[in-house]
Amino acid sequence: MFWQQLVNGLTLGSTYSLVALGYTLIMGVLNIINMAHGEIFMIGAFVGLYLVTYLKVNIFVAMAGAMVASALLGCLMEVLALRPLRRKAVSHLAPLISTIGVSIFLESLALNIFGPQSQAFPTELATVQMQLGPIRITLVQIVILGISFGLMFVLRFWLAKTRVGKAIRTTAENIETANLLGINTNKIIFLTVALASGLGGIAGVLVGLSFNAVEPTMGLSMGLKGLAVLILGGMGNITGAMLGGLILGIAEVFTVAYGASSYRDAVAFGMIILILFIRPQGLFGKRQGGRF
Amino acid sequence: MDIILNQYYLQIAVFVLVNAILGVSIYMTLSTGQLSLGNAGFMSIGAYTCAILTVKAGFPVYLAIPIGGIAASFISVIIGFPALRLTGIYLAIATLGFGEVVRVIVLNLKVTNGALGISGIPTLGTKISKMMSSLGLPQSFGGLSAQQTSTLLVLLVLLLTLAFLVFFCTRLNRSRVGRAFAAIKADESAAEAMGINTTFYKLLAFALGALIAGIAGGLSAHLTFFIGPKDFAYHRTVEILLYAVLGGSDLVVGPIIGALLLTLLPELLRSASNYRLMIYGALLVTMMAFRPQGLISEETVRYWKGKLGRRRNQ
Amino acid sequence: MTLVLDQVSKSFGGLAALSNVSFKVNEGEIVGIIGPNGAGKTTLFNLITGIFPPTEGKITYQGKSLLGLRPYKVTELGLARTFQNIRLFGHLSPLDNVMVGAHCRTKSGVWKGLWRTPSQRKEEKATRERAQTLLKLVGIEEDTDSPASSLPYGQQRRLEIARALATEPKIILLDEPAAGMNESETEDLRLLIKKIQTMGNTVILIEHDMNLVMNVCDRLMVINFGQKIAEGTPTEIQQNPLVIEAYLGREEA
User: Fold this and answer.
1) Is A134 within a domain?
2) Which whole number is the average pLDDT over C177-202?
3) To the nearest 10°, the Cα dihedral for B149, B150, B152, B157?
């Protein structure tokens, strides 16, 4: 039972990690929280769903499609809602409020286009499973674990070793210095937003597959969980986002398994309050300004 | 007379006033530069506490509403304290989570009746009518129907509440506490360096905001027969935020004007009701991009004061 | 009435901003802290006023440790400061800015403020009058409703000093108050600093304007690369070979 729940928790948690990484990347280069990230995740899920259902592509193509669509959406948001604010001197609340506006807009748009009901992926995908000792694991779970962990490792490597990755880290550290070093920070910001949103989009498809339910309100609850992971792991900390997501996933699964299933969504919030009380900088954050 | 005072318009006026009070609740917290995204949650704590007290425990309305407000305020201190020691973003996230958790708890507790909500709440209107008749006063005045009269009296109660809140905020602004709030909003670190315990004052503003939201919740519970979890969803908080963003958060009249405009707008745009939230979202983005200080800002007031020549500007 | 820094060090990540700085400030002195840009002078102010804690070392005031105290508590104890890049409450009037400074010496809360009780009105009047006095002291025409950010630069700097004085400090820390001032403004500033001393305050001054520093300070401390390299009277410092070397090629004022 324990190992089964652990696997379930890791699977769920890895999707939370992906979403949290999206928040972390944007927090790193722009120093803001993108409150619309959950909705970008949701739109990614719908794009994936419609690609599979209507264009009959296989699930991996659908994921790629979702990633592209979300990345584009993120870029659009950057141009329309975020860039104009950087030109003026606005309060630190302004980008936050602006992204709240984007999130509400997107959720309502999705409601109007896709309707409020929960939609499911075609069933062949969801039922294949296999038995590994005491653990029953579905194909969907394997796909999720594989893609999530794969993406996380690639991202880590990419940020650490490639030139573009290093440029992103420099921009996140100090944008003026990055400019002085000749980095085209505007391009880097675009790239980072696209990357973060793309990760959100893929996570959307994975979560939609995993629960076999895609609906416009999934953005709000996932968005909140991503924020909880952000606080748990430490704002702007990549390792923190990855590990924090896994921890939240496991905590939620065990909460359900050991009785309090209807309070599952409150675990994330409880975690936020607990961390704020005992260790506000998160598990991996530093006292002053957590960067990558 | 009957045209203006027909029940439909009177009801709208009632909603305008309740929304205005909610606008003041978020104004309070914004006056220290903090963003609370959980005001719908505080509203629901106030509403449910109040409704449970009147429906299940037989409390009188005028006691239940303040108690609801105090309950909301009390809880705000518990979640506010850890968050307000840190920068503003933490309060936004914590209150966002809080709003959701309240919704989940309300859905699951027996005493709140879960998704079915609480019904049979005595409306303020009927309460006032009963009170009037027990005092020997006529239930209708000057040719108005009993319903119109009671709604007008409800309007009066709400108006007095709003007026008191405006008085409260104006007095506070010109006092030591108000100056501390303004200093924190302008530059939190500098304010702290000037001897202001910023955590305490941020918490104070937040708790006052929760109190006001809780009272608004209690009032609104008694304006309709029924309250349910859906009434206090996150979208409500965003609407309240929009009152302040549209109207302006420098002065207390800003969110009131915002509430007025945004309560009337859906009535005028009945046909576009599906797109209401899309319009709100677009409005938030547009205001932040083009006029982040809102329609009414300190500058606006200074400008008009200068024009009317009431003060000499050096 | 002394402020004592004992082996104070501060590192950010791997970078040592200050190393083993020990220094004492006596009551009633005007002490200058000088050194090239980036030497760690403002970091010293930030440590003293509690913005962040030192990595090592002790800071005590009148025998009481300042470590771990939040900035507002440090101000309550009697240390006030101005900032290197002006941090006024821009959209508040000059008078309001100074009245904010009086916050920690007054006590009316929400209830009293709401009903304007007699004691509250008395306190407001006293706060207002004291603020007006301070504005006059630093040479700002009071009673303008315009936001403080619309004042000319030199006046903004003086306003910050008035605001700090409103906290009724015993020690006032001025961070480059003469930056951007011309000669006559600097002379007015020198007189103001002297006046603040005669009012019973101790002044710690970070400055680059050597003329001002040598003329107004009783003692100096020189910091370079985060370390104290010299300490003494202006005359002694001017003749100190280490100091001259640190400043070679740098002629300010």
Assistant:
1) yes
2) 92
3) 150
Closest to A247 in 3D by CA, of A263, A267, A273: A267
- The confidence score (pLDDT) of residue C253 equals 43
Which structural domain range is residue A96 located in?
Answer: 2-219
Task: Give B171: exposed, middle or buried? Use CB within 10 Å, 0-12, 13-18, 19+.
Answer: middle
Q: Is A227 an interface residue toward B (CB < 8 Å)? A: yes
Which among A273, A278, A279, A281 is the top mutation candidate for probing chain B, defined by the most B β-carbons within 10 Å of its own β-carbon?
A273
Number of structural domains in chain A = 1
The 10 Å Cβ neighbour count of residue A265 is 18
Each domain of chain B, given as residue ranges in start order, spans 7-231
Higher-confidence position of B2 and B244:
B244
Q: Which residues of B touch A270 (CB under 8 A)?
A: 101
By CB atoms closer than 10 A (0-12, 13-18, 19+), residue A179 is: middle
CA distances, A117 to each of A110, A213, A215, B103 (Å) = 11, 9, 6, 20
Q: pLDDT-based confidence at A288, cuts 50/70/90?
A: very low
> Which structure tokens are listed for A148?
């999530």
Specify the pLDDT at position A291: 33
Residue A253 included in any domain: no
Task: Give φ, ψ of A254 to 5 degrees.
Answer: -70, -30
Q: Is residue A284 part of a domain?
A: no
More confident residue, C33 or B88: C33
Question: What is this structure's pTM?
Answer: 0.90
B185 to chain A: nearest residue by CA? A91
Q: What is the ipTM of this complex?
A: 0.91
